[in-house]
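User: I'm new to structure prediction. If I give you an amino acid sequence, what do you actually give back? Let's try with this one:
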Amino acid sequence: MGVSAPLIENFLVGPLQMRCSVVTDSDSGDTVIIDGGDEPQRLIDWIESCQGSGPNWSTHTEVETKSIKRKVVALLNTHAHFDHSGHIPTLKKHFDVDWYLHQDDTFLQTLAKTAAVRYGIA
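Assistant: Good question. You get back a string of structure tokens that encode the predicted 3D arrangement of the chain. For your 122 residues, that looks like this:
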């Protein structure tokens, strides 16, 4: 499957200002959230209605962005550090989609909450 004009929106989220990317096929509206580690309500509000504090930067103008009807089809993680995966359960429950994480990061994911507490974030 090819995407000729992807909409790529980047959000700096959480106290560590980790980058979360929301990538949408401009034609179909199929959307994936990459590294949804924090500020889930901000992401949900923007994806569903372009409301609230939008992306920090985007490949499209705001007018173009608002004309695209999105449907989240998957959650992806580059790795399982808590700032990248901490709010995956919230997003997974809200959008009712599959979550993809490399199998070698499964153990690291089990430590995410402990790591967040250690940094005073959870």
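You can read the tokens as a compact description of the fold. Here is one thing that stands out. Strands lie at 6-13, 18-25, 30-34, 57-58, 71-76, 99-100.
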